[in-house]
User: Fold this.
Amino acid sequence: AGLRTLCTDQVDAAAVTRIYRTHRGHPAVLALSKTRSRLGHTNVLVALTRAVSPHLDRCELTHLEREPIDLRLAEAQHIAYEQCLRQLGCTIVQVPPAPDQPDSVFIEDTAVVVDELAVTTRPGAPSRRTETQAVAVALAAYRPVVAIEAPGTLDGGDVLSYMEIGRASCRERV
Assistant:
C-alpha cells in the first residue's frame, strides 16, 4: 500500500516494487544499495536510468506479437517512474540517452551489480550489445567494472540472485 501511495498509477507497481526490494538489499543495475562512490559519497541509494528511445516501437520481441507503442505515454510513464524512485529516496543518475538503440530504456539488462563489483553484460541480441558501454562508464563511479566477453552472453534482467530467492535455506526455496 505504501508504494501505491508514493507513486502515481502511471507507474507499473511491479517494477517499482522490484526497485524498492533492491533498496532493501537485492542487487540490480538500477539501484546501488547504500553505495560508496569512488567520488567519496557514502550511503547513497543510486538508481541508473536511461531515457526512452524514440524508436522504442522497433524494440526486440521474441515471444510476443508486436503491438503499437504510444511513445508519449511511454515517456510520461518513464518520468513518473523516475519521480517515484526519487520519492523512495533514490538519487537518479541518467545514463546518456541512446536514441538509436530501441531497447536502451531497459537498462537492467546491461549489467549485474553486487556490493563488490558491477559486471557489464553481453546481451544475447546483437542489436543490444552497444548499450553496455555508457552504463559501464556510469557504474565505474560506484564499483569496479568487469565485462562478459565473447562468446559469452548474458542479459542482466534474466539473473536471479540468492538474495532474490530469500534468506531461507536454498533447499527450501529451490
In short: Residues 71-87 form the longest helix (17 residues). Residues 1-31 have pLDDT under 50 and may be disordered. Strands lie at 31-35, 44-50, 91-95, 111-113, 118-120, 145-147. The chain is about 30% helix and 15% strand.
